[in-house]
Design brief:
- The protein has eleven helices and twelve strands.
- With about 325 residues, it is α/β, with parallel strands linked by helices.
- The chain has a seven-stranded mixed sheet. Strands 1-6-7-8-9 form a five-stranded mixed sheet.
Amino acid sequence: MAKIDRIHTSLSKLNQDSHTIELNTTGCKWIIFSDHHRGIGDAADDFAPCKDNYLAALAYYLENDYGLILLGDAEEFWENTLKKVLTKYQDVLEVERKFHDLGKLIKIWGNHDDAWNQLNKVRKYLFPFFKNIATYESIKFNVKQDDKSIGNMLLVHGHQGSGASDRFAGVSRWFVRVIWRKLQLWFKIPLSTPAKSKRLKNKHDIAMHTWAKAQDKQIVVCGHTHQPVFMSKNHIDALLSQLEGLDSNDVSNTELIADIQLKIKHLNKKTSAIGTLVSDSKPCYFNTGCCSFADGDITGLELADGSISLVKWSDEKKTVIDNGNLKGIYASL
């Protein structure tokens, strides 16, 4: 419980101190990506297989007048030096710069790219790509419809308050760069797969959800776990809901039911349905997933046309996984 209390305290402080931006449900369009973990192109670089999908996504969002929000851990500085990462992915940064030149780039730092919390490093390494860019630990959207506020949305990477990622970041960074990086290269183990501890992942989901639902008309959007969550439901929740809607007495559903049950069994080893962890599963918690899945796919959250959507880019094409109306979501909180 102590860890959850620390996370709640951190979120409350950020919610109070965050730079606030108005988000009109009509006219404003944003894509939120997190957890790229861009490295130096070697076997330990988890972004490498995702680069093509990411560039295809950026081209689409530029063409369709979206803004870009990088929600932390875009770069992997626990494993690598700043200069090497930025040199390796200069082409990606050049595309991201197009959003900045249009005044449509927001960069939030996470625990693996917390160098962007230091102004001297931002000026030295980021200003050459993004002139005079400001970096944030969090931002808050004041969501409006017809010029009337309908609620708030806190965007934060999500590591705040956790021991290894926040309080002990220096020790963790040393371990990753000195020891873990070598293990990755030798055994080709990806660093930034979703949190391997089911207990800690569950605790994170509980912490984010319980903080958000205790607020007044508040949504929290984060990354960090690499696990997509939409309206306080993760993949297991969605599968359980799908299973409940199937008639087990209908023979035509037998194969589909067996397939869903197998997926749930596999996922249960990694995480739990959020709905089984909290007594009131208000649709107030969202997670972008990541841009470093081993199969090259990436996930993100779109804000556009009064809706929020969870999207996946695979084979350089977009699929909408789920979506919801923001006015309706806030009305239910």
